[in-house]
User: Which sequence fits this backbone?
C-alpha cells in the first residue's frame, strides 16, 4: 500500500534530461505521460480498494451496491475506494467473497445461512466459512398468489392444483418447499411448475396455472408485476401457528404483514420474508467494518430514493441475522446498545 513517488519523480527528471539528447518530441512526450501515469498509480496504492460483489440478475442489489460504494464508502472513509463487481448469481457472490475476489457482497439471509451450514443449494459441500454478517437491510417478501377461480383460500388448498414454485433449483423454490412441507404438502400432492415471475404473470392470466410463489421487495420496481396483477389474484396468508413453526426451524425467516391498502385486498396478508443481507469477508479489518457500518447508518437516506424507497434503520439491522456478526460491525452495535457487550 506504499507509494514510490520520490523514485518515480527522479525517473521523470531523468526523462527530461534525456529529452535533450533525442530528436523526437513525440517520444519525449509519451515518456513524460507514462511516468506521470506511474506516479498517479503509485500514489493510488495508498488507497485500500474494497470490492462489492453483486448478483447481476438482482437489480435492487446492483443499485444498493452502487450506493454503498459511491455514496457511503467513498465520501466517508479515508484512503478507501469502493467499487462494484457483477457476479452471475448470489451463490457466485458468496464464493467471490470467501475466495478473496471481493470484500463485501449483498445476498439474501437464507442463502447465507445455507452456505454456512452446507444446505440446499450448497448441499453435499462442506459448510462455507470465511464470511460474516454486517447488516440486514430490507425484506424480500414471500407472496403466495392464486387465481380467484381456483378456490384457493389457504396454503392447504394448493394440494391438487397447478402451482408455480419459481425456477428450478432456486432460492424461491426452496422457500416454497419449506412452506409446503410444513403444511404437509409435497410435490406428489400437486402439479409443480417451474417458471420465472414474468411467465407466472402470463400463465395466471391465461389460466394455465392456479397459483404461484413469488418473492419481491414491496414498493420496489420488482413489485410492479404484482400490482398489475392485484385485481385478478388472491393473496394467501400463512397462519400464525405455521409461521412460528417455520421460524423455529428456519431462523432467517421474519414475519411480514402486507397492508391491505398496498394491493387493495380485503384484509392484511400475513406471510414470511427473507432479508437482504450485507456480508463481509471475515479477514477484512475490524476498524474498516466499524467505520463502514457507522457510515451506512449515518447516511442511510441514500437508499430512500424514488425507486428503492427503502427505510434502512438501526431498529431492524439485526432482524433475521442468521450468521455471526463481524467483530467490527458488532463493536458499532454495542456502542448503539443493540448488542450487549459480553463480560
Assistant:
Amino acid at each position: 500500500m506504499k507509494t514510490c513517488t520520490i523514485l518515480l519523480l527522479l525517473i521523470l527528471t531523468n526523462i527530461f534530461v534525456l529529452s535533450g539528447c533525442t530528436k523526437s518530441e513525440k517520444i519525449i512526450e509519451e515518456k513524460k505521460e507514462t511516468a506521470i501515469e506511474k506516479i498517479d498509480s503509485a500514489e493510488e496504492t495508498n488507497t485500500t480498494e474494497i470490492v462489492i460483489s453483486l448478483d447481476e440478475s438482482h437489480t435492487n442489489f446492483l443499485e444498493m451496491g452502487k450506493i454503498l460504494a459511491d455514496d457511503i464508502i467513498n465520501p466517508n472513509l479515508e484512503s478507501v475506494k469502493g467499487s462494484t463487481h457483477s457476479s452471475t448469481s448470489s451463490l457466485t457472490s458468496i464464493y467471490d467473497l470467501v475466495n478473496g475476489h471481493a470484500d463485501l457482497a449483498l445476498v439474501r439471509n437464507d442463502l447465507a445461512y445455507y452456505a454456512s451450514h452446507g444446505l440446499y443449494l450448497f448441499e453435499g459441500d462442506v459448510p462455507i466459512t470465511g464470511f460474516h454478517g454486517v447488516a440486514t437491510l430490507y425484506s424480500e417478501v414471500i407472496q403466495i398468489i392464486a387465481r380467484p377461480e381456483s378456490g384457493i383460500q389457504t396454503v392447504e388448498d394448493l394440494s391438487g392444483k397447478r402451482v408455480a414454485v419459481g425456477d428450478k433449483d432456486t432460492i424461491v423454490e426452496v422457500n416454497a418447499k419449506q412452506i409446503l412441507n410444513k403444511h404437509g404438502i409435497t410435490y406428489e400432492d400437486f402439479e409443480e411448475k417451474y417458471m420465472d415471475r414474468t411467465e407466472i404473470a402470463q400463465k395466471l392470466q391465461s389460466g394455465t396455472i392456479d397459483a404461484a410463489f413469488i418473492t419481491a421487495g414491496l414498493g420496489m420496481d420488482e413489485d410492479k408485476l404484482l400490482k398489475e396483477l392485484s385485481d385478478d389474484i388472491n393473496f394467501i396468508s400463512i397462519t400464525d401457528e405455521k409461521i412460528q413453526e417455520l421460524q423455529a426451524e428456519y431462523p432467517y425467516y421474519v414475519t411480514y404483514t402486507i397492508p391491505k391498502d398496498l394491493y387493495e385486498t380485503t384484509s392484511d396478508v400475513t406471510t414470511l420474508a427473507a432479508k437482504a443481507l450485507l456480508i463481509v469477508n471475515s479477514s477484512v479489518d475490524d476498524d474498516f467494518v466499524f467505520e463502514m457500518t457507522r457510515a451506512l447508518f449515518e447516511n442511510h437516506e441514500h437508499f430512500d430514493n424514488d425507486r428503492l424507497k427503502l427505510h434502512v434503520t438501526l431498529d431492524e439491522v439485526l432482524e433475521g441475522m442468521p450468521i455471526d456478526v463481524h467483530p467490527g460491525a458488532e463493536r458499532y452495535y454495542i456502542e448503539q446498545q443493540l448488542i450487549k457487550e459480553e463480560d
In short: DSSP finds twelve helices and ten strands in the chain.
